[in-house]
Request: fold
Amino acid sequence: MTTSYYDSINLIERLHRQFMDVLKVELERASILDINNVQGMILHNIGTDELTVGELTVRGYYLGSNVSYNVKKMVENGYLVQERSIHDKRSVRVKLSDKGRKLNDAISRLYKKHEERLVSAGLPGSRLESMNQVLRDLETFWGEQMGVGGLTLAS
Reply:
């Protein structure tokens, strides 16, 4: 299959993996070895929020099945603070610790550095905005397809 649609699906996946590799290399360069790239993305997505583990997934901050493991490791390594909700003792909320905020700031600086370099790479903000609109439209399309059903197996 060599359609533009199929190429887009593969490119989205490859780009995600490649960015995760970039983040992994940057963590290693900074000698930050007690957190991995996936955990770094979770941490950065939490930012200034205070969330339950479930909210991480619902808000799209984490796509995967082992969010609890990653949160546990970040708590153990001092990047997150876990607190029981004062309103619902069954609910545990997480937020960045001082160490987590420091790494979050470093990741934000990395993003800013990348943004500054994008223009010289031929990717000004206007091109990114156009791409983002196409990706949002594709996200909407895929969301709509979940209620339609279209896979049929020939018998």
